[in-house]
Amino acid sequence: MSSPLPFAPGRVHIALELEIPSDVRYIERVVEIVARQCAQFAYPQRQTCLNIPVALSEALSNAILRGNGDRSDKYVQVKVDVTQDRLILEVLDEGLGFNFEECLQDPTEPDNIEREDGRGLFLMTRLMDRIERFSNHGNVIRMTLRRHD
After folding, report:
1. Residues whose CB falls within 8 Å of the CB of residue 1, separated by 6 or more in sequence, listed in order
2. pLDDT, tens only, 1-10
């Protein structure tokens, strides 16, 4: 049996679009799908086992619980674009959006230690290379992770 051919850098990319019900039970499965795609490109283990799962789980839970208000009649869309060099994730909910800068607070600051919110965005900004928020028929978080070997 022959071994698979390696991907040519910058030549191949995988693009996926997923739509899931607004239900936290789907988070783990979506994370598995994305991590598997990154593993196909031999991303470093730290990124496939830590950065991507934690950041994507936080984005999905925020979309489901905050953006969609934990309403089962709403949906979350996930767009994935992965290449040998970088991963772009977009998580779209049906919410009205939020002020990214206002919500981005350091949970380790004394005034924020007791707060229950703000930790997800904080983790996303620490684990991914770039985080953007914009509106496109709903609230979108775009996360970019460059491959770090």
Report:
1. none
2. 445 555 555 5
Domain count, the chain: 1
Euclidean distance between CA atoms 121 and 131, whole angstroms:
9
For the beta carbon of residue 15, count every other beta carbon within 10 angstroms.
Answer: 11
Distance, in Å, from the CA atom of 56 to the CA atom of 52, rounded to the nearest integer, reads 6
- Quick check: is 61 in a domain? yes
For residue 1, being part of any structural domain is answered with no
pTM for this prediction: 0.84
Q: pLDDT by residue (tens digit) across 80-98?
A: 999 999 999 999 999 886 6
